[in-house]
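Two entries, shown back to back:
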Amino acid sequence: MTPSVGGSLTGARRGTATVFAAQGMAVAAVSTTVPAVEGRLGLSSLAMTALTIALTLAAGAGSFAGLAAVRRWGPVAVMRAAVLTAAATLLSVAWAPGRATAATAYVLFGLALGAIDVSVNTRAATVERHYGRSILSSFYAAWSAAGVAAALLTAGLSRLGWPVPYVLTAHAALVALLALTVRPHALAPTPSSSSARPAPHDEVPGRRVWARLVPFGVVLLVAYVVDSTVSAWSTAYLHQTLGASLAAAPLAYAAYQTGTVTGRAGADLMVRRVGPVAVVRAAALLAAVALTGLAVAPSWPYAVVAACCAGLGVAALTPLCVAAAGRLRPGAPETVLARLNVFNYVGVLVGAGASGGLGATGHFRIAYAIPAALAVTLVLAARFFRPTAPEPPHAGTPRRPDTAHVLSP
C-alpha cells in the first residue's frame, strides 16, 4: 500500500465514520424529544406512534431512492446531501407551526435516513473490503457514540429549561457541521476488480443470493425490533411509566447507546478471535436477559442500567449482518444492502409501532417483554454467520468493477 493510497483509505474510513455519527445524532435528536414534541404539538401517544410509522415507511422508500442516487452520483455525494437534508428536517420539526407541518417534516426526515443508510453502508462495505479485515463495527460504534452525546445534550438542555425548538435546533446545527466535514477520497480498485462493466440486468443478484440473504435479514429485523423499542420509546417509558422527569427520561437512550458503543468497540476484535457465530449467540442471550430486566424495572434508575446492557447485547448484530450481506455480492454491495434495509425498516416498523401502541394503552412493560423473547430465537440463526464464499459471476459475464472505483465521486 503506497502512502497516498493509505492516506485515502484512512480518510475514507474517517469520512464514513463521520456520516455514521451524523446519522446517529439525528436519530437520537428525534427519539429523545418525543415527549417534548408531543407536549408542544398536543399530540396523543397514538398520534406520535402514527408519525413514527410514517417516518419508518418513508425511510424504506428513501433507501431505494438512495440506491438509485448512489448508482448515479456515488455514495459520498449522496451521504453528504442526505445528512444535510436530515439537518434541515430537524429544523422543520423544531419550528413546525402545526401538526401537518410536523408530519411532513417527519416524513422527509425518514426519506433522508433511508438515503443515508444505503449510501453509508455501501461506502462502509467498500472500505472494509479494502482493509481486508472486520472493521464495520467501528463505524456503528461512531453511530452509537454520537447517539450518546445527542441524548446527553437533550437531557442537559432540557434541565436548563430550553424549549424543544431550541434543543432540536442545536442538534440540527451539529448534524450539518458533521456533514460539511466529509470529503471524497478515491480508492484504488481491489485485486478482484476489473475495468469492464456489465449490462444493467447483470447487476441484479440471483435467487441464490436472496436465499442466503434471508437469515441475515431475519436477524437484522429482530435486532431493529429491539433497537427501535428501546430507542424510540425508552424516553417515553421512563417519563410515563416510571415517573422520570423530562431531564432524566433521555438517560435510558444515552445508556442504551453507551452499551452499543462499548459492544461495538470490541466487536471486531471478538469476531476475529472467536468468530461471528459465537458473537451472535452471546449477543442474543445478553439482549434477551437485559430486555427482561427492562420490562420488570421497579424504577427508572434500574431501567437505565438494563437499557445499557441491552445495548451491549444488540451492539454487534447490525454490523455483522451488514458485513455478511455485503460479502454476498462484493461487486455490487449497494444492491444487496438496499434489499437488506427492507428487513431493517420492517423491524423498526414492528418495534416502534407495536411498542408505541402498547405504551399508549399503558402496557410499556409488555412492549419490552416481547422483543426479549424474540432475541432468544437469534441463537438458532447464528450458524448462518459462518463465512462463505461470495456468489461467482455468471459464466461469460464480465465482473462488475469494485464499487470503490465506480462509486467514488
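entry 2 starts here
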Amino acid sequence: MQINCERLKANLIELSKIGYNEHDRGIYRPGFSDADMQARRWLQRQAQAAGYDTFMDGAGNVFFGRGELNKPAILMGSHIDSVPAGGIFDGSLGVMAALEVLQTMDDHNVNTDTPVWGVATAEEEGRFGGMFGAQAMAGKLNPDWVLSAHDADGVYLKDAMAAQGLNAMDALDAAWRPEQLKAYLELHIEQGPVLFQENLQIGVVDGISGVFKWIVHLKGKADHAGTAPMDMRSDAFMGLADFAHEIERIIAENGTDKTRITVGKVELKPGYPHTVPGEAIFTIVGRDMDEAVMQEVANACRKTLSAIARKHRLMFEYEQSSWLPPKPCSKALTDQIEAQVKQMGYSYLRMPSGAGHDTQFLSEITEAGLIFIPSVNGVSHAPDEWSHWHDVENGANVLLHAAMALLPENGK
C-alpha cells in the first residue's frame, strides 16, 4: 500500500499559497493571524470534500477524520501556522500527510473500528510562548497563563484570539483524556542537516530537546549620536552586542554539544540613525536535551546579562515566556516505527530532535512517535526550506504503515 504523492504534493502547494509573500517568497501564517485562520478554514473544506468529519476546538485545533471519538483513537498531524517568512513544509507536511493517509486507507478500502483522525494544532511556533494547541490537548494550560500570554510585540493571546472570534478561555476545555487516544504520530522535516548530509532517507526520533524563551529588556539612555562621548553613553545596543559575543563561552562552560542559544528578534528604541539606542528588546531561545543543562545555561545567561548591564550602565529585565522540558518519545512506538522503516528498506538514523514539536506534549497523554525526512542543506524556517518530493513520499509512506500497524486488525 502506497500513498498518492501527486495528491499530497497538490495539497501542500495549495496550502502554501495562503500567507505567501511574493516579495521574499516566504510564508506568513503567525498563530491566530488572518492567514492562519484562513488556512484552518481551507483545511476543513478539504477534509469535508474528501468525506471526513471535521471540527475546531476551543484552542483553535482543527480535527478531521472518521470514527466516533468514544474509543481510543489514532491521531496524526502537526501544525500549519508558520514563523514569519517560513517555508512550505514545516508543520504543513505532517498535517497534509495525515489527510493523505486517511485518503489512502479509503482508496484501499481499509475498514477499522478504530477511530483514525488528523489534527492541525494551533499556534505551535510559539508566537505567544509554548505550543498552545498541543498544550491545550494535553491539559497543560491554566487561566493565568492564557490571560497573560503575549507576543514579543505586546499583543496578548486573548486579544489575538478574540479578533478571530475565539475565546481564549475555551482552550481550557480542549484537553483530551489519555483513554481517548491510542497513539499520536507526527511526520516532520528534520529542520537540520544530519539526514541530508549523511544521505539518509528517514529519521526515527527518540526524544525532543527542551526549549526556554526569554524576552529581554536592556534599558539605558537615548542620546545624541554626535554629541554624546563614547565613554559616557548608556548604549543598550552595546549591551546586546556584548551578550552575543558571550554565547559561545556560555555554551562551552555550561552547555553540551546539544546546546543552542539564539537571539532571534531585536528591537532598538528609539530606532533613529542619529540617536544612541536607549533600549534594546530581544528574544533569547535556549535548547538542550537535558533539563539540568538548560537550567545551567539559563542561569549563565542571566549572570552574563547582569554583568554586561553593570558595565554599560544599563538596567536589565527579562520575562521567561516559556519553559518546555525535554521529552522522550514512546520507546515502544519508536521501536515499532524503526521496525517498519527497516521492513520498508529505507536508510535511517535513530536520532534526537533539536527543535520542539507537538509530539512532546502529546507524549504526556499517549504513546507518541515522531518521524523525520531530510531538509535540503538543513534549511528550515526560511523561504528556501525544501525537501525533495521523493523524501516526502517516503516519509508519508512510513506514516501510513506506522498507523496501519496500530490497527487491531493488524495485531496491535
